[in-house]
Amino acid sequence: MLIPSQALEEMGYNGEPIQIYIYSKNSEDAQRIGAQCAKAGIRIELTTRSMGEMMQMIHEADLIFYHICLESEYDLHIIR
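Now predict its structure.
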């Protein structure tokens, strides 16, 4: 079993920050995710954007934290 740092190295991750755009309502959850990623050696940069900004700047982010889907929620949106 690979430890996280070995797996990241095999995938070619060199420690560059991953840019995640978030809405302010997701800030707390996104910070928890960022903290977990940091434990695995993944650098996360969170940037809060408004709905209008998000749609204009959507291609600048590596990831977008849009929504948390719980068991009772059946709608999942993926932007490619």
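The first strand starts at residue 18 and ends at 22.
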